[in-house]
Design a protein that fits this description.
The complex is a heterodimer of chains A (163) and B (397).
Chain A (H helix, E strand, L loop, with lengths): L2 H12 L5 H8 L3 H13 L20 E9 L8 H8 L4 E6 L6 E7 L2 H12 L5 E8 L5 E2 L2 E2 L14
Antiparallel strand pairs in A: 1-3, 1-4, 2-3, 5-6
Helix pairs in contact in A: 2-3
Chain B lengths: L2 H4 L2 H5 L4 H10 L5 E2 L11 H12 L12 H15 L9 E5 H13 L5 E6 L5 H7 L3 E6 L10 H7 L4 E7 L11 H13 L3 E5 L24 E6 L11 E5 L2 H14 L5 H13 L1 H25 L11 E2 L10 H12 L1 E2 L1 E2 L11 E4 L4 H27 L1
Parallel strand pairs in B: 1-10, 3-4, 3-5, 5-6, 6-7
Antiparallel strand pairs in B: 2-8, 7-8, 9-12, 11-12
Helix pairs in contact in B: 4-11, 5-11, 6-7, 6-10, 12-14
The chains are: A alpha+beta (163), B alpha/beta (397).
The structure holds pyridoxal-5'-phosphate (PLP).
Pyridoxal-5'-phosphate binds next to helix 6 of chain B.
Chain lengths: 163, 397
């Protein structure tokens, strides 16, 4: 990874709507070079996807999110990977992490309502062979996500013109 | 009663700030994009704010020594040595002030008086001339030019020196031009200053904000330390404008004299600000570097933008201002800023507000988000292109 690639990634992470031309000016590069560099990083999977961070509270949606701690009896020869793969294929599952500590997998699940999530845990996740136990935590409120403070109270307080 | 008669002649003599006048106009317009703000758009780093909150919880709400907390003076001296190789004693060669602003005022009042001339390198921050006048001295403008990258040229300085010249006040990296002085440039200036036995007030509040070469201080040029009052502060580098913490470094006798004015007018800088400054200097370097990197990226974006629009713009090597030349539009700078505001709701500051040499330029601060810069450039472009065409045609006729 070159320093230039890192800088481009930082700018895109900050705002994925920034244009290649703007990046080129900001980093003193040719537009074509930046376009190529971004294309390459998209192609090799360094840049996985461009998305928006949404403050869903503003959308008045019924969306429910749970974080589920899963204890696992790992299979010989496959470790945790085989089970993790089975779990992350479920469309409700947003992320899966292997954890150190008192449980093994952390699974983040999103659903339209409580019932749907309860169904997921009882009918799909728990019955999986090798799942020893699950503990489900519902998210009540989001304060910060992906490094972004939702509902940030810090506004630009500066006067419009100053010395 | 005729109130005007009661006002002091010095106060009557100084004009109200040109920025203020333009400010009123901008405030009356709704929904403007402002490139007119002379302060960071970052909020003071959280750990700095937190340290001040903590000190308040501990009940630290009292006066400090007149020259500032010893701990802070020691920290500033360490920082200045480490960052710019400037060596000053925390005991008697530094004082903490209420912003660089106060340091400018008391430095001028300490050294200048009736009959003295103070050379002011322009375009510059708006307070130098009025503060010199309030001290009773006569400000003398020393212009800098775009063709010299807004550096101070030795022959221009020399041509303005008279037997009454007492001191020169200058600011590099410069507000509003973004011009800087490199060591070789400063050496030539220092020779003239020594030859004419002048003092220097060197406002270096933007010293950290340089892009490319590291800042050079005139106090580091041979034989200059004793002649220099170095002024700086944390407003710009650490995004701490509201805390009002600045400082002056100079010969012990000058500091002692400045301290007399400070002690009888201000007493001391606020303790909450001093505590915050301590934290910023100790642990704020990493966040400062991040801010500088962002300024640098926006600087390139805005300069390129102006060049594409067709406004000539020298590449600012410091501070956070671009200073494009708008003469190609056929407007003078005040008119340009007013029309631009009316037509496109973009606020920029007319260059002549900053004194001689600023005529025909506008100051555009890039201490604002890149998306605002992009939007502003687009609007300025739409406004400027027809003007440039029209002006070209008129000149052809
Ligand atoms: C060149 C210069 N000096 C001094 C100041 C004032 O700084 P402070 O906030 O430390 O009083 C400013 C603020 O815009 C400035 O641009």
């Amino acid at each position: 990874m070159t320093e230039l690639q890192l800088k481009v990634l930082q700018l895109l992470k900050e705002n994925s709507k920034i244009t290649a031309k703007e990046i080129a000016s900001m980093l003193d590069q040719e537009v074509e070079a930046i376009e190529q560099l971004i294309q390459d990083m998209e192609a090799d999977g360094t840049i996985v996807k461009y998305t928006a961070i949404v403050n869903w509270e503003k959308v008045a949606s019924e969306q429910v999110i749970a974080m589920i701690d899963v204890k696992v009896a790992p299979k010989r020869g496959q470790g945790f990977d085989a089970l993790a793969e089975r779990i992350y294929r479920f469309p409700e599952v947003q992320s899966v992490y292997l954890m150190s500590g008192s449980y093994d997998l952390s699974v983040v699940v999103e659903g339209n309502n409580l019932k749907q999530l309860a169904e997921f845990v009882s009918a799909r996740l728990s019955p999986l062979e090798d799942v020893v136990s699950t503990t489900t935590h519902f998210i009540l409120k989001k304060y910060k996500e992906n490094g972004v403070i939702l509902n940030d109270k810090e506004k630009d307080q500066r006067l419009v013109v100053s010395p | 009663m005729n109130i005007q008669e009661k006002l002091s002649p010095q106060v009557k003599q100084i004009p109200p700030s040109g920025i203020r006048k333009f400010f009123d106009l901008v405030v009356a317009t709704k929904g403007v994009i402002s490139l007119g703000v002379g302060e960071p758009d970052f909020v003071t780093p959280w750990h700095v704010r937190e340290s001040s909150i903590h000190s308040l919880e501990q009940g630290m709400t009292s006066y400090t020594s007149n020259s500032g907390l010893l701990e802070l003076r020691e920290e500033i001296c360490r920082y200045m040595d480490e960052t710019f190789a400037l060596k000053y004693s925390p005991n008697n060669e530094i004082m903490v002030t209420v912003g660089a602003s106060e340091a400018i005022d008391i430095a001028l009042r300490t050294i200048a008086s009736q009959g003295d001339e103070v050379l002011i390198v322009e375009p510059c921050y708006v307070s130098y001339g009025p503060c010199a006048t309030l001290a009773g001295a006569t400000p003398v403008s020393v212009p800098t030019y775009q063709k010299d990258d807004f550096k101070l040229m030795p022959e221009v300085l020399e041509s303005k020196i008279t037997p009454k010249s007492k001191a020169i006040i200058m600011c590099f990296p410069n507000n509003p031009t973004g011009g800087v002085m490199e060591e070789e440039d400063l050496k030539k200036i220092a020779d003239i200053i020594k030859k004419h036995d002048l003092l220097v007030i060197s406002d270096e509040v933007y010293a950290e904000l340089t892009y490319g070469k590291k800042h050079a201080s005139i106090a580091n040029i041979e034989g200059m330390k004793d002649r220099t009052i170095l002024i700086s502060g944390l407003s710009k580098s650490f995004a701490m404008t509201g805390w009002r913490i600045g400082f002056a470094m100079a010969h012990p006798e000058i500091i002692a004299a400045m301290l007399k004015i400070h002690q009888y007018t201000i007493l001391c800088a606020p303790i909450m600000g001093q505590i915050a400054a301590l934290e910023a200097l100790r642990n704020g370097k990493c966040e400062m570097d991040k801010m500088i990197e962002q300024y640098d990226q926006r600087r390139k974006l805005i300069v390129k933008g102006f060049q594409e629009i067709g406004l000539s713009c020298h590449i600012p090597k410091g501070a956070f201002y671009a200073f494009p030349n708008i003469e190609a539009t056929g407007y003078e700078d005040h008119q340009f800023a007013e029309e631009l505001l009316k037509e496109t709701k973009v606020a920029v500051v007319p260059g002549s507000v900053f004194g001689q040499g600023g005529k025909g330029f506008i100051r555009c601060s890039y201490a604002t988000s890149y998306s605002q810069i992009t939007e502003a450039l687009e609007r300025i472009g739409e406004f400027v292109l027809p003007l440039i065409d029209k002006n070209k045609n008129e000149q052809a006729i």
